[in-house]
Write a structure and sequence with these properties.
The complex is a heterodimer. In chain A, strands 1-2-6-3-5-4 form a six-stranded mixed beta sheet, with helices on both faces. Chain A is α+β, with helices and mostly antiparallel strands. Chain A folds into three domains: 1-27, no CATH class; 52-244, Metalloenzyme, LuxS/M16 peptidase-like (Cytochrome Bc1 Complex, Chain A, domain 1), CATH 3.30.830.10; 268-453, 2-Layer Sandwich (Cytochrome Bc1 Complex, Chain A, domain 1), CATH 3.30.830. Helix content of chain A is 41%, strand content 17%. Chain B is an alpha+beta fold. A six-stranded mixed beta sheet of chain B has the order 1-2-6-3-5-4, sandwiched between helices. In chain B, strands 7-11-8-10-9 form a five-stranded mixed beta sheet, with helices on both faces. The chains are: A alpha+beta, B alpha+beta. Chains A and B meet through helix 1, helix 3, helix 5, helix 10 and strand 11 of A and helix 2, strand 5, helix 3, helix 4 and helix 8 of B.
Chain lengths: 456, 411
């Protein structure tokens, strides 16, 4: 091992001798390394504001910016019309009884604030980044938005118009079409599978959105997660403004629930998109959620299969065959269901061959134990990768969110970390036999039919 | 404020350390002073193809990725017209592995023909995925050669033609490596919980014996002053027509850079910017419109562009943009408008310093551009912009004869 060779810094009379030493450096031998033995989790400081709102705070002195996340129980799961949650969140910054859309944009920009409102599958979120010196005016605006949104007709029309045009642009992309069709195949009867199409827009109007707002945002309790620079003065400002808003009692749970037995259409679906140079492939199936006992092993299996750059799929399809710029496999974890998605944009004529290789790699994982060296690599990679998501206050807040909304606590991460350290090849084989049956998965391919349909 | 220390090796490698005692993870960022602007016009796309080859095995290490993953690390890289940047993160205890890996591929690649064959295909698929297989994806393939007639910014980093990538040979690869991938053409920046003396020992050990190369002297064709407006029309299967206007401006080190940058923000950074207010919200001509500066090291471009609402032509959109510009250039902007874009720029700067990775990356970039200390001067330069400097700079840049205009017309 060359680790004991000591080298001195340049401009030294012993340069010749040092140089000789250096020629003995054996570059074939990797330096010794350590595996991660422990990680620590930063828990939130929890405060109950005077109106009962829960504030979860993650502070670090080194930070100079504040991130506020307001998370609401409002999503596709609560919709009566497709698009309600999307357009309601989009309209939150488009007008209040005191400010026009233009005034709101000016106000936010004047203070250099980044703000986004998003309707996700399970929840809606308002997220913003603000310099501490400008926090107060921004909190006042948030309080205004949560109590006095007025949904101007003109702004909705403009937003719908832009939405429709962007949809037409997206419909020219094979990857967009594939993802849409794939979601529908996984969730044919559930709101998770919906996409907003042109025909849905006629059902969306300001009174509908206003009702949705009244039900799920107006004076409704939300989870407030504050990270970055959050000292007592910052917390006090939040208490003074958001803590003083009138809140009503909590609201009901989603009306839509999933029935896994009737879900997922596993028929393959090859969609024509003429003139496309590449074909977009999506394969997947329903899975249990992350609260299930098998989830940790499933995520390790997924990592080996297609979750990182050294995965089986990436090595085979990109690094050996050069069919694609990238292929991935992911586990999407929603509140009511999880699902597997394997995706790639490949050269059209290799679509069929790529799917065959995906089946072969899955079969190999079902039949053969993962070799020791690969096991060590993926173990250390996942440990390092996990440790690197625990560094900044934003990371801490993200880790918190992904347990909090699943009614899990930090023991979950302790267990995950422990599983990473101890999992075995047999456990991965078992997990593959339980879950990784790609030939039974939903399959979507979008591309030029004459190319993709060629038998190889 | 990003504090740092620096030293050089005898072979010319410049090393920067940003010590962060709180981080259990280290970042290693290695920037090579070679971008697509350094390519020959007959062999474009090469700097980027080469970036892919850097992961195909070095002299003593068959798989870079596998060796790094095994010690808990992750990596990636990117190529721009100006530079090629490699970066990785890993547990601080394993920092030496990162230096072993980076030094070995700086020393020599393995130059295996199979690696070239596969990565050639991968890059061609990347070319299609990013530039060809989506509407408007080829914008920069078209706009660059229109705006630049002499300077090598006239081709995109991916290359101007897939054929250049198809025809790359192993000799090209070797020439490229020995010319540019030398310690005196690179800057190594390390961030994490390590002292300067410990880092010096490790860097000397692994990089110290890599021979210095012949210094690369960059001699690029200068872009002559544009005297006449240029136009190009692209007929394409696009649902909305679009217009993009590129004006020549100074490079990243130009004294007026931030005046131009903030001028582009006033015009088109966010929803309160003039173009959005006037043309998306009030007149509803555009579906989306923005303005920005590309921020290249050599003289760059000030870009205004967007997609029109359905039924409105690129010509009408162009006309409307010019009306907004006319107003902007005639009247000095309000002090509050300047204050606004300064606040936005400040928040962006502060956000970019949250992650250790971007701190290390920015340090290396500014060392390449100017001095590492410049990373901490950006805030002052932004604050120094005045209503007058912004207006004068905008008036110099936003002239019709200094502009290349590209229309996408629906078939």
């Amino acid at each position: 091992m060359p680790t004991e060779v000591k080298c001195l810094v340049g401009h030294n009379p012993l340069f010749i001798i040092i140089y000789k030493f250096m020629t003995y450096l054996d570059r074939n031998i990797a330096p010794s390394f350590q595996t991660i033995k422990e990680v620590s989790f930063v828990h939130p400081e929890v405060y109950s504001l005077s109106n009962g709102l829960q504030m979860y705070s993650f502070h670090a002195d080194s930070q100079a910016i504040v991130r506020l996340e307001l998370i609401f129980k409002a999503s596709v799961l609560f919709e009566e019309q497709i698009g309600e949650s999307y357009f309601t969140t989009r309209m939150l910054t488009e007008g209040t009884t005191q400010k026009t859309s233009e005034e709101i944009s000016n106000y936010l920009d004047q203070y250099g604030v980044f703000m986004e409102t998003n309707a996700l599958a399970d929840r809606s979120i308002i997220v913003l980044y603000v310099l501490p010196k400008f926090l107060e005016p921004i909190l006042l605006l948030l309080a205004e938005i949560l109590q006095h949104c007025n949904f101007p007709e003109k702004e909705l029309q403009n937003i719908q118009n832009i939405f429709l045009q962007n949809l037409q642009i997206n419909k020219q992309k094979t990857s967009f079409l594939a993802t849409q069709a794939f979601k529908k195949a996984i969730f044919p009867h559930h709101a998770y599978g919906n996409s907003i199409e042109e025909e849905h827009l006629q059902n969306i109007n300001t009174s509908l959105l206003s009702t949705f707002y009244q039900k799920y945002f107006y004076q409704k309790p939300f989870d407030l997660i504050v990270s970055g620079y959050v000292d007592s003065a910052i917390r006090q400002k939040i208490e003074n403004i958001l803590g003083k808003m009138t809140l009503q009692a909590d609201y009901t749970n989603p009306t839509k629930t999933i029935n896994p037995s009737t879900e997922t259409n596993t028929q393959s679906n090859w969609i024509e998109k003429s003139d496309s140079l590449q074909a977009s492939i999506r394969l997947g199936s329903l899975l249990p959620t992350k609260t299930h006992k098998d989830f940790f092993h499933l995520s390790i299996l997924n990592e080996i299969f297609g979750g990182y750059f050294g995965s089986r799929l990436m090595k085979n399809i990109r690094e050996e065959k050069g069919y694609t710029y990238g292929i991935y496999s992911q586990l999407a974890m929603l509140q009511q269901a999880g699902y597997w998605v394997i995706g790639a944009d490949v050269k059209g004529e290799f679509a069929r061959a790529t799917i065959q290789e995906i089946h072969k790699e899955a079969q190999k994982l079902r039949q053969e134990l993962v070799p020791e060296e690969e096991l060590e690599t993926v173990r250390n990679y996942m440990l390092g990768s996990f440790a690197s998501t625990l560094i900044t206050p934003f990371d801490w807040a993200d880790r918190f969110k992904s347990i909090h909304f699943f009614q899990l606590d930090y023991q979950y991460y302790e267990n995950y970390f422990q599983t990473l350290q101890t999992f075995t090849a047999e456990e991965i084989l078992q997990s593959a036999n339980e879950y990784l049956h790609t030939e039974k998965m939903a399959e979507v391919v979008v591309g030029q039919k004459e190319l993709i349909a060629e038998e190889n | 404020m990003i504090q740092y220390q620096e030293f050089y090796l005898n072979n010319g490698l410049r090393v920067l350390l940003h010590e962060d005692k709180n981080s259990p993870i280290a970042v290693v960022n290695l920037v090579y002073n070679i971008g697509s602007r350094d390519e020959s016009p007959e062999k474009t796309g090469f700097a980027h193809l080469f970036e892919h080859l850097m992961f195909g095995g070095s002299k003593h290490i068959p798989s870079y990725d596998q060796a790094l993953q095994k010690v808990g690390g992750e990596n990636n890289a990117f190529t721009s017209p100006d530079l090629t940047n490699y970066y990785l993160t890993l547990p601080i205890a394993n920092l030496e592995t990162a230096l072993w890996l980076e030094s070995d591929r700086m020393l020599s690649l393995s130059f295996q023909p199979e690696v070239l064959e596969v990565q050639r295909k991968v890059v061609i698929e990347e070319f299609k995925q990013r530039y060809l297989n989506q509407p408007y994806g080829d914008l920069w393939l078209k706009l660059r050669p229109l705006a630049y007639q002499e300077h090598p910014y006239q081709w995109a980093t991916i290359g101007k033609d897939i054929a250049h990538i198809e025809n790359a040979t192993m000799d090209d690869v070797k020439d490229f490596f020995y010319k540019y991938y030398i310690p005196n053409n690179a800057i190594l920046s390390v961030a994490g919980n390590i002292s300067l003396s410990d880092l010096e020992k490790l860097v000397n050990k692994w990089f110290g014996d890599i021979p210095m190369g012949k210094p690369y002297q960059r001699k690029l064709a200068e872009e002559p002053k544009q005297e006449q407006a240029r136009h190009q029309i692209v007929q394409a299967d696009v649902p909305l027509e679009a217009v993009y206007k590129a004006y020549h401006m100074g490079g990243r080190n130009d004294a007026h850079y931030f005046s131009a940058d903030l001028a582009s923000d006033v015009l088109g950074r966010s929803k309160s910017a003039r173009l959005h207010q006037q043309l998306v919200r009030k007149r509803q001509i555009f579906n989306s419109i923005s303005a920005y500066v590309v921020g290249s090291i050599d003289p760059g471009l000030f870009v205004i562009g967007g997609k029109l609402n359905k039924g409105i032509s690129a010509e009408e959109g162009d006309q409307a943009i010019q009306e907004v510009l006319q107003d902007f250039l005639q009247e000095p902007i309000q002090a509050e408008e300047l204050e606004k874009v300064k606040n936005q720029a400040e928040a962006t700067l502060v956000l970019s310093e949250v992650e250790l990775l971007t701190r290390a990356m920015n340090l290396a970039y500014f060392a390449l551009l100017d001095t590492p200390d410049a990373v901490n001067k950006q805030g002052e330069l932004i604050q120094a912009v005045t209503v007058e400097s912004l207006q004068t700079t905008a008036q110099t840049i936003l002239k019709p004869e200094n502009c290349s205009t590209l229309y996408y017309k629906s078939l």
